[in-house]
Write a structure and sequence with these properties.
Order of helices and strands: EHHEHEEEHEHEHEEHEE
Radius of gyration: 15 Å
Number of domains: 1
Structural class: alpha+beta
CATH topology: YbaK protein
Shape: globular
CATH superfamily: YbaK/aminoacyl-tRNA synthetase-associated domain
Number of helices: 7
Number of strands: 11
CATH class: Alpha Beta
Distance between the termini: 30 Å
């Protein structure tokens, strides 16, 4: 097992994608000071592999998913922040919130180009200002959430309340569902 070597994110900008670094610098200091970052093996950036390798509870991890809602010729991009133990209700709740006929996860190349972040490291901090950031209320309840840093080579740790207080975040009850039991 490897452990996370968390340091204040403001003191380690090299561990953050450029849009994340810029958003962190513009953030209210009372929030920015509560965000920490740690380097990780980029091959272990995917949530399940990361949690196993770094002895982190899956329930303490949050995922930021880029979605695209379409109505006619109009496509609306948004981000959904959900616990790693849940699944975003893209075809139900998200589709309705985006007033879209269809909603789906954005293509990897589109998500990377639009965010300026690496796939597998996308985070709500530093997303385009025009996007809605939809966050499941359960994420806000985490004492400490682990989420991407914009890079696959690091992770951010911050209280769920700080995630919920980021500019543009909308708390949504029922944004995510617990997975169906198997077996």
């Amino acid at each position: 097992m490897t452990r996370l070597d968390l340091v204040p994110a403001l003191s380690a900008p090299e561990l953050l994608a450029v849009p994340v670094r810029e958003a962190l610098a513009a953030l209210d200091p009372s929030l920015a000071d509560r965000i920490r970052v740690a380097p990780i093996d980029p091959a272990l950036a995917d949530t399940a592999a990361f949690c196993a390798a770094y002895d982190m509870a899956l329930a303490a991890s949050a995922n930021c998913l880029v979605v695209a809602g379409r109505r006619g010729e109009t496509t609306t991009s948004a981000a959904c922040v959900v616990l790693a133990t849940t699944r975003a209700d893209v075809n139900g709740v998200v589709r309705k919130l985006l007033d879209a006929r269809r909603a789906s996860f954005a293509a990897m190349d589109d998500a990377v180009a639009a965010t300026g972040m690496e796939y597998g490291g996308i985070t709500p901090l530093g997303l385009p200002a025009s996007w809605r950031i939809l966050m499941d209320v359960r994420v806000a309840e985490l004492e400490e959430a682990i989420i991407g840093s914009g890079l696959r080579a690091s992770k951010i740790a911050l209280p769920g309340a700080v995630l919920a207080a980021l500019p543009g975040v909308e708390l949504i009850d029922g944004l995510a569902r617990d997975p169906e039991p198997t077996g």
